[in-house]
Amino acid sequence: PRIFADSADIRDIEPLYRAGIINGVTTNPTLLKKAGATSWQQAKTMLTDILTLLAPNPVSLELTELTQDAMLVQAQELAALGSNAVIKVPIGGYRTADAGADPFTGLKVIRALWEQGIHTNATLVFNTTQAFWAANAGASCVSPFLGRVADYLAKHDDKLGPPGNSLYQGDGETRFHNTEYVACGGPRQDSGSRLVQEIVTVFAHYDIRSEVLAASIRNPAQLTEMLLAGADILTVPAAILAGVADHPLTDLGMQAFCADAAVFSG
Ligand code: E4P
Question: Which spans are transmembrane here (predicted)?
Answer without folding.
Answer: none
